[in-house]
């Protein structure tokens, strides 16, 4: 049976204890300027996307799981995996374990300064 939709994951929301610090961290890691957006029940800051229907997400003020014990959100490296991981470490992330190679890409786990588990992912070309 063919799965009827293109993407299983449609959106991610990452809680941060301080939205300004979260914007600074994720802007540094992914090398783009995230902006505060006042909408809905909470202020948020959106991750960039190229197309209107692309999968993306945002950060919001909330209570993260601690020490990476919650789910892992995997986010694309905007350039090389190594460069993105280096920026994450410089911005305050804890890098966890070695780079993991899969048939379709590579990733490395990190814990952001708020306790969220991240996978920094790079597709194989």
In short:
With 125 residues, the protein is α/β, with parallel strands linked by helices. It has 2 helices and 8 strands.
Keywords:
125 residues, alpha/beta, 2,3-Dihydroxybiphenyl 1,2-Dioxygenase, domain 1, 2 helices, 8 strands, globular
Topology summary:
Elements lengths: L10 E6 L2 H12 L6 E3 L2 E5 L9 E6 L10 E5 L4 H10 L3 E9 L2 E7 L5 E7 L2
Parallel strand pairs: 1-4, 5-8
Antiparallel strand pairs: 2-3, 3-4, 6-7, 7-8
Characterize the biggest β-sheet: 4 strands, mixed
Mean pLDDT: 92
Got a strand count? 8
Q: List the secondary-structure elements in sequence, H or E.
A: EHEEEEHEEE
Q: What is the CATH C level class, in words?
A: Alpha Beta
Oligomer status? single chain
Which class best fits the helix and strand makeup? alpha/beta
Query: Strand fraction band?
Result: 35-45%
Using the coordinates shown, work out and report the CATH topology: 2,3-Dihydroxybiphenyl 1,2-Dioxygenase, domain 1
Percent in helix: 10-25%
Shape: globular
């Amino acid at each position: 049976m063919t799965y009827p939709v293109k993407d299983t994951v449609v959106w991610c929301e990452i809680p941060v204890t301080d939205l300004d610090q979260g914007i600074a961290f994720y802007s540094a890691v992914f090398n783009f300027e995230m902006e505060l957006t006042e909408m809905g029940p909470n202020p948020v800051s959106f991750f960039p996307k190229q197309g209107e229907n692309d999968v993306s997400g945002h950060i919001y003020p909330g209570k993260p799981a601690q020490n990476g014990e919650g789910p892992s959100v995997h986010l694309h490296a905007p350039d090389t995996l190594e460069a993105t991981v280096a920026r994450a470490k410089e911005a305050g992330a804890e890098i966890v374990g070695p780079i993991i190679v899969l048939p379709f890409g590579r990733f490395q786990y990190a814990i952001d300064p708020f306790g969220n588990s991240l996978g920094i992912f790079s597709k194989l070309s």
